[in-house]
């Protein structure tokens, strides 16, 4: 995951900053409790492709 890319992409729902989860290879939006997948290293920033975070994962 390119860190410069991470700086320019934003959550499609709230337009907020996303955090990259290295372990799961997902981009996390905490306010929305959504995790966006990466496909071939490309972030898929679509709300209907996102996974809802569970309670444990959405902790601050
Ligand atoms: Zn968001």
Automatic annotation (TrEMBL):
Superkingdom as given in the UniProt entry: Bacteria
Name of this chain's protein: UPF0434 protein KFZ77_06635
Gene3D superfamilies named in the record: 2.20.25.10
Family matches, as InterPro entries: Trm112-like
Family: Belongs to the UPF0434 family.
HAMAP family to which the protein is assigned, alphabetical: UPF0434 (MF_01187)
Gene: ycaR
SUPFAM superfamilies according to UniProt: Trm112p-like
